[in-house]
Amino acid sequence: MKSQCNGSSSRTWRSRLRCLALAVGTLLALTNAACRSTTNRGAFSEAGAGGYWKCGESSGNLNDSSGNGNTATANGTITYGVVGPIVDHVTTAISIAGGSGNHFSVASAASLPSGDVLSYSVRFKMGSLAVASYGFGGQTGISTGSPGMRCFAVGNGTSVTLYLEAWDGTTEFILANSSTTISDTTTWHFVTFTKNGSTSKIYLDGNDVTVAGGNITLAPSDAGFAIGGGPGLSDFNGSLSQIALYKTALTLQ
Q1: Is the pLDDT higher at 117 or at 43?
Q2: Which of 10, 24, 44, 240 lies 20 to 30 Å from 60 when distance is taken between CA atoms?
Q3: What does 186-247 look like in DSSP terms, one character per residue?
């Protein structure tokens, strides 16, 4: 009788442990799904990126996770180890306090976009909504007359509007701006700017928010890129993570 009782008790506890394990597994799956639905909405894969910088470093330069060796060299004052968007196992980010000279530089390379087809994507959290033009990134040759693009956020004191702009060497063109503004400094957002010939797009948090502007054909350029800044812009003010450059025009997944 004692043996039977012990066996029954053992089976009961094993059954309870199995149920508990299933419950924990279900809870984790639901939690992960909930997190992805809010922080990974409209995400693009880094597969095929010419440069991909996760921004998980604790100091110094940013390593290129695309495998193309496009190290982003740190300039000025950068804060590392900032709490990030917690997407795809990246849990930290970098922070820039605006101003000038506080960004990253990437040298020209065959794997990086040059010309009339490109995409730039980044996860970001604004640190300021003050009146300024905050650079996400751009081709550095613009400052010396070379053709190129730059993307940035324009603050008006209460919100920011996103812009994609091109320079053909003589004239500046606004290719697109966002129909949606951002009026908070607490939420992570995900934006992708694309140009595919005469069509330019801005995707914000999984939505097409493009307000079409003008167009200019961009000739190839051997200029490098600024990350977290751009020619003629203030450096970004806020946090950045998972920055990618593509030689293709991405579309929403």
Answers
A1: 117
A2: 44
A3: SS-EEEEEEEETTEEEEEETTEE-EEE----PPPP----EEES--TTSEEPEEEEEEEEEES
